[in-house]
């Protein structure tokens, strides 16, 4: 038998517990408690790094916010400027002024054409205007805008206009241009002496008139440039293109006469009274442009001789001469003013019965020539009246039974046979020249 002590002396080794075959150990994250705890220095370093990163992030976000606020401020300023420009834009007011002036000029042209058409006249102009002359005319037409302040016109000139000096210089310029001299002009049968052309120039108290008009006030910039050229001893630059060698002036001194311009449309139409001042004595007032009026031949020479339209050759001067003088070349044709409601309303207004009522602008003046051209009917009608109404007025004026006729215009050629169409639809406004022509008989047709 062995003693218990002997068993202690023997080394006994326990077998290792082996993992069973065919199984994998499931991986688990090691517990923190199993690792070593960080030191205070490591905690401090980690905390400082996180704080530095957060501070940098806050700084970047602050910069981004500042840039966005700046951009928002700029956009708000742009929006305010845009809204203000839309509310009160000087460009829009300028456009409105130009549109109003355009309508005003159109109305003036319409009134002048209506006046000329009452006498069977049509103004075509000289047709020799250059670009500089058109610009000069545009400056002269800007008179309705005198109420607008212009900085350039408000500057006081260095030298005032001296009319006495201008009259003295005009004598020297006339001598230089050959006043009173004649030049040889070749003709078909030989030659003849012809006086040099001269430019009529009339001085008034408040302006000048060159050629046959229009009146030019001393306040106009174009007039001041012309007078300063004369005051400096030169021919006006505006005449250089037309008269490159100079031209004598036919001077008329009417500085004691005040030229009364036509009233502007926006001016008060009534008679005004001035308080506190007496009327200047010795000053005459005139409205007439000096110079001879156009004769019939001078007016016809301004028109083209012939015109081809739609394959037809139209004798413009011949037709115009017949209209003004009659078919037989004399002024013996009869002009008949037809009584119409529109004409009666105009007479009542002129007689003072309806002064307070405004005149109807939609009135057309028709000149209707009879079949033989011996009679011309002046008919005032509303734009809304029809061709049938025109036939009724003609029947009332002619009285006796007449053969069937048709109403037409020769230029352009058009027959107005639809009695239901108004004058405005036919284009016979604000004035027109018509002709009556007998209808061809059924046998002849």
TrEMBL record:
One of its GO terms (biological process) is proteasome-mediated ubiquitin-dependent protein catabolic process. Residues 1-25 are annotated as: Disordered. It holds the Pfam family SEP. Keywords: Coiled coil, Cytoplasm, Cytoskeleton. Its main location: cytoplasm. SUPFAM superfamilies: NSFL1 (p97 ATPase) cofactor p47, SEP domain (SSF102848), Ubiquitin-like (SSF54236). Transmembrane segments: none annotated. One of its GO terms (cellular component) is cytoskeleton. One of its GO terms (molecular function) is ubiquitin binding. Residues 364-443 form the Ubiquitin-like domain. Interacts with GNA12, GNA13, RND1, RND2 and RND3. May be involved in the reorganization of actin cytoskeleton mediated by RND1, RND2 and RND3. Promotes RHOA activation mediated by GNA12 and GNA13. This is UBX domain-containing protein 11. The lineage of its organism: Eukaryota, Metazoa, Chordata, Craniata, Vertebrata.
């Amino acid at each position: 038998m062995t003693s218990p002590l002997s068993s202690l002396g023997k080394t006994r080794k326990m077998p290792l517990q082996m993992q069973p075959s065919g199984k994998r150990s499931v991986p688990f994250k090691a517990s923190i408690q199993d690792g070593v705890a960080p030191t205070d220095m490591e905690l401090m370093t980690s905390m400082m790094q996180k704080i530095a990163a957060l501070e940098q992030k806050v700084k970047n976000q602050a910069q981004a916010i500042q840039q966005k606020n700046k951009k928002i401020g700029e956009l708000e300023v742009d929006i305010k400027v845009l809204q203000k420009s839309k509310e009160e834009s000087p460009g829009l007011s300028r456009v409105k002024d130009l549109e109003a002036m355009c309508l005003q000029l159109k109305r003036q042209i319409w009134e002048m054409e209506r006046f000329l058409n009452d006498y069977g006249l049509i103004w075509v102009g000289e047709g020799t205007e250059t670009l500089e002359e058109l610009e000069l005319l545009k400056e002269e037409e800007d008179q309705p805008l005198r109420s607008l302040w212009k900085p350039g016109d408000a500057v006081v000139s260095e030298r005032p206009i001296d009319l006495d000096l201008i009259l003295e210089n005009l004598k020297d310029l006339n001598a230089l241009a050959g006043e009173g001299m004649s030049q040889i002009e070749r003709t078909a049968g030989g030659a003849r002496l012809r006086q040099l052309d001269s430019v009529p120039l009339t001085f008034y108290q408040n302006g000048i008139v060159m050629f046959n008009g229009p009146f030019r006030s001393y306040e106009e910039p174009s007039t001041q440039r012309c007078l300063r050229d004369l005051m400096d001893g030169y021919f006006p630059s505006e005449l250089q293109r037309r008269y490159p060698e100079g031209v004598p002036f036919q001077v008329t001194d009417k500085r004691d006469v005040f030229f009364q311009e036509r009233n502007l449309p926006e001016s008060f139409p009534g008679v005004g009274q001035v308080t506190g001042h007496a009327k200047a004595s010795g000053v005459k007032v005139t409205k007439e442009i000096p110079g001879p009026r156009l004769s019939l031949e001078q007016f016809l020479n301004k028109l083209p001789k012939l015109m081809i339209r739609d394959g037809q050759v139209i004798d413009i001067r011949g037709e115009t001469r017949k209209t003004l003088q009659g078919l037989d070349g004399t002024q013996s044709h009869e002009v008949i003013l037809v009584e119409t409601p529109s004409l009666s309303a105009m007479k009542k207004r002129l007689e003072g019965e309806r002064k307070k009522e405004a005149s109807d602008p939609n009135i057309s003046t028709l000149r209707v020539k009879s079949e033989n051209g011996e009679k011309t009917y002046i008919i005032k009608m509303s734009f809304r009246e029809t061709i049938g109404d025109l036939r009724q007025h003609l029947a009332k004026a002619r009285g006796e039974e007449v053969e069937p006729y048709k109403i037409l215009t020769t230029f352009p050629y058009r027959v107005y046979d639809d009695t239901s169409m108004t004058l405005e639809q036919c284009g016979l406004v604000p004035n027109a020249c018509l002709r009556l022509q007998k209808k061809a008989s059924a046998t002849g047709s």
